[in-house]
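Cross-posted from the bioinformatics board.
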Amino acid sequence: MTQPYEQVSQWLQSYQAELMAMLEQEDGKQTFTPDTWSYDDVVQSDASEHKKPQGGGKTCVLRDGKIFESAGVNFSAIGGASLPKAATNKRQELADKPFKATGVSTVVHPDNPMVPTCHANFRLLTVGDNIWWFGGGFDLTPFYGFDEDCVLWHQAAKAACDRYGEAIYPRFKKWCDDYFYLPHRQEQRGIGGLFFDDLNDWPFEQCFACVQDVAKAFLQAYQAIVQRRKCLAFTPEQKQFQLLRRGRYVEFNLLYDRGTLFGLQSHGRTESILMSLPANVQWTYNYRPVPGSEEEKLLTHFLRPQDWASCD
Amino acid sequence: MTQPYEQVSQWLQSYQAELMAMLEQEDGKQTFTPDTWSYDDVVQSDASEHKKPQGGGKTCVLRDGKIFESAGVNFSAIGGASLPKAATNKRQELADKPFKATGVSTVVHPDNPMVPTCHANFRLLTVGDNIWWFGGGFDLTPFYGFDEDCVLWHQAAKAACDRYGEAIYPRFKKWCDDYFYLPHRQEQRGIGGLFFDDLNDWPFEQCFACVQDVAKAFLQAYQAIVQRRKCLAFTPEQKQFQLLRRGRYVEFNLLYDRGTLFGLQSHGRTESILMSLPANVQWTYNYRPVPGSEEEKLLTHFLRPQDWASCD
């Protein structure tokens, strides 16, 4: 698996650069600051020698932009002598075998509450010489919703998936809705998108092509939505609503997100994992939106799983 | 246990009122808004009928005070047909038996970063007719530390415990240091205090007296520290450091705090549980304090478990 792994890792690095170039172009003010790190430099006093991860990554962060309050794009290529149990749902017999993992993850927190927050992640995991699977997906978290943006987002997701079979989009879309749910709020995190793991149903080249198509669809769809919304005016009250909703984002990531919890438990690099958290967040006791308001519509209309791709 | 339970529940309600009166007096601007709630009014679609909690509470919140940015003091008296497994460390044979629990918890987030954040919790749990134990404690989270405040805090804790035996303070102090630790940051949450659970070593009246003494020590010690620090000047940079440190508080509560996780998992009232989160929080990528600064000293001096009670 060395050659295909290297091929994916190379593509992920060029994709990271492409994603940052797009975000810098849309922001028009700030650029990303890269931070190249290695596990050799990370103090991991709590991890036993056998369980220490190896490898490293490049964490790139943009702060205080004109459009983006904060954005992170993280590349990593890590490995270890012992695959953590939590790394695979399906294949518990692989736990404790040597593994390699390479991926890109991004979270973008816009300043303007009319522009939605986005998250995406694309990764390859290999175990031993012959076993591999892809995982990843992308999802959108609006504060003020627009039906046509939800339609664009899900149609882009569907178009990328349909090349690989009509059953793919419905499966990955439902997986995303099921995953990004906060039981203690009885709320979805956002309007969904795609989520997949253990992807090795087809030959390697075909799975890799699917991941590349999905990644490209994410970049183009998010750029289109940013362009539509970034010049809209907003009030201080709308900004405050965004800060409160970001509290839900933090709650999801720290209470439920498997990547975050797995990363922290397996002695991953904390700053690269928690790069997903927003710069500014608020909590207030028992906030309830005004009946009939746009804030209420976010909950009653947008954050309800639905068949956006079929809307016209 | 009906009569002793009612006795504790009554005392907790008067203690809640006393605590709020103290905080209102120190704030001098805002007062607490009470919110009386019952599980009968909470939608719990995810909970099976058997596992639904019963009872309710009074959640009191103060916001945007002169001294306190946010403060919550929560009383609750709940019960259920089936004690959740996570509710007891020692006594797994009690899981699934009928239980009652009553407690007060408080978290205070001052505006001024020279005033520390505090947390306290005092509770009684009863199972069936004859089994009971107390739990609780208090701990302090400074942003800018003062040795004499740490000494006052721990001497107050020690004095309250010493009436019940010299071994109590060292045991509850270590329990607190061990509990309020963030492994992914390799940091303590604060300078500690007391933490205890499963307290039924003595007759009921003596255990209850100990809890009352500890609760009184908390109230007096925190008031003394607030009075010492609330008029100190602070800079915008110091305020920002406080907001970043509050991020650690959120991380602890959502990643590790057993009361929070147990409460959310057992379909507790989300708004009363997450009342502990600060109003305003910030995260920034890879913040490092300036060497030799007060911000660094927080980490290198204050957030290191030590024998504060023996200092002079």
